[in-house]
Fold:
Amino acid sequence: MIEILKLLVFFVCTVLVFPIPVNGSYKPNVLFIAVDDLNDWIGCLDGHPQAETPNMDRLAKRGVLFTNAHCAAPACNPSRAAVFSGLMPARTGVWSNDSHRIDAASPKTVLLPHLFRNEGYETLGTGKMLHGKVTGLFEESYNVNQRWSPFPKNDVRYTKVELPSKGTSNPRHLMKDSLGRQVVLPINRMPSDRKPNKPDGESFDWGGFDVPDTDFGDTKITSWSMEKLRKGLGDKKPFFLGVGYYRPHIPLFAPQKYFERFKDEPGKLPFVVTDDLNDIGSMAVKWAREPVTAGSHETVLKHRQWRAAVEAYLACTTYVDYEIGRLLETLDKSNASLDTWIVLWSDHGWHLGEKEHWGKWTGWERSTKVPLIVVPPKRLAKQFAPEGSRCDQPVGLIDLFPTLTDACGLSTPNNLDGESLLPLLRDPSKQTGRALVTTFDKGNVSLRTIRWRYIRYSNGEEELYDLKNDPNEWANLSEDPRLAKVKERLALLVE
Structure:
């Protein structure tokens, strides 16, 4: 009996002393959480003083928060194509939301869930992962019909009678909510700046619905994922679970209870300067003011909707944070709690009036910068940086593919454009000297280093910002002769 006890003690000590290898036979799970159109307005990034995101903040305290993370392209389709392929838009051919989805544009490309499936993982997904439905991306998937509002998608379409009024401030579409009450869309009563001749529901809208959370697609997505975890996901073989939330993508609809706090404390507008566009070129001004991905700043101001839109964005963010909290709580209570990598990311940022812009699809910080949190499995925690670490080095969503294959001991394709973040997850203070590239349509390139932002447009116009001294990118320094060598060096990096 004594000998058995000695052997047991030896075994326990050996496990404690010699850590489980990251690369090897150990195959941890992956919980891959995507949040649509989320900028840095979350508590742990200090992007807005009224951000209430306790669950994302707690998640950041469990792992490493990357404070300088950027997308490969500031639009859903090309950004997500880059994440799931590990390839930049120039190599996928997915340049914009109008491009084919990557599985159609480049059908031979090995996508991240497919690689995991080929390596013996169970792959499941729900919500918005690639641009559109998750069908075909995972072995098992769940699509919701109520993505943007508490109404089924096909119900939020204008009739032929209503369509002529689209583009005016007149009520356009009458519906009934789940409790039988009449709802008039758009809630904000603003005219449409974007696609006024299409029958689809107006996307540039915001407001609360006094209905249960269960009427919203993001809640359904969470519940489906929770049920999988409760039923023993990961018991038989490791899993890759992708959970893609639609909020805070426009229309900015959420349950009414998330708006209540603004009755006592109105939403604070982002810091802007009135002459912000005076020192940039004509193409940049066009990108800023045209309602390409949302509506126009001019219309928002005219209808006095700026503060209401900010409140709605914050409300939607708090709502999705609550859903993330439900998901994480279920994971922590499941059998998979010790052996799961957690990655939370957003596909790109979002302007709410900064530089007179609403939406994404620019080369500025507000559009390219995204939240990124990576949490190692509890079983491997001692091999990585202390909980609650922050990394200020430039990193990209393009790095997620090689990071996860590296972390899970899988064969990483040798043609990827990103770099594994494991070294930074072990030592977040490590200096990398990297420059992250974001492309927005062919010929438009934005470069981010630890200090500088350099932008070059297809017509040759340039911008240069010193983000150490000008984090809001208010002063374009591209014509400053004292910085000519800096600009020249950065320009060479985008050739």
User: Anything to note?
Assistant: The mean pLDDT is 93.
